[in-house]
Structure formats: C-alpha cells, structure tokens
Amino acid sequence: MRKTVSLLASTGAAGALILGSALPAGADPNSPNVGITGAARCPASLATGVAITTSAGESDTSGVSAGGFYSLSLQQVPSVGTVATFSVECSNGSDSFSRTRLITRPISGKVVSVNLFS
Q: Model pTM greater than 0.85?
C-alpha cells in the first residue's frame, strides 16, 4: 500500500512538471496585451500594409514584409474578446479589402495568428 501511494505521488508530481513545462513562458490569459501576426495576400498585386481597428476604438498599423507577413499589437483586448476589422492595402488599390474577426486573448502565449486572403 505504501509503495502504491508513493508511486501515485511521484507520478502526479511528474505530470504536473510536464504540464507546467508545456505552457509557453509568458503565457498570461489575464493580460489584455495581444500580438497578432499572419500573412496578407491580395488577389492580383502585393499587400503593402495592414491596419486593425477594434470595436473598442483601439487601432494599429503595420507594413507587410516582402514575404507577405505582418505584425500588429493590441493592448486593450477584454477577456470576452473584441471584434476587429482588418484592412489590407494592396499595391493595386482596387485589390484592397477588409475582413472582420473576433480577437480573443490566447489561452497560451501572447500572439494569435490571423491570415488575411482576398
């Protein structure tokens, strides 16, 4: 009996250690700070910029790398999330478009990925 209890206790401790190490460093679901990264693609030209505006009035803008990637940051994402409108600017203005998404705080980490394709 004593060996069984000892084995269960050590197994539980090992499981907690594994679970604790599986969460990314800096993960804080209580933090309103959320990074947003992703790819932006226009139908017939190059994406040149991405802007975001939330239902709470927060906004940010980003250029788009040669590979088509962008990075944005929000500091006021409520625990229930926020509706965000992404506007993608394309080198051919007629290709530009917008998308609306719900942005929530990530369960782990500080960054969410949102790909924007026309």
A: no
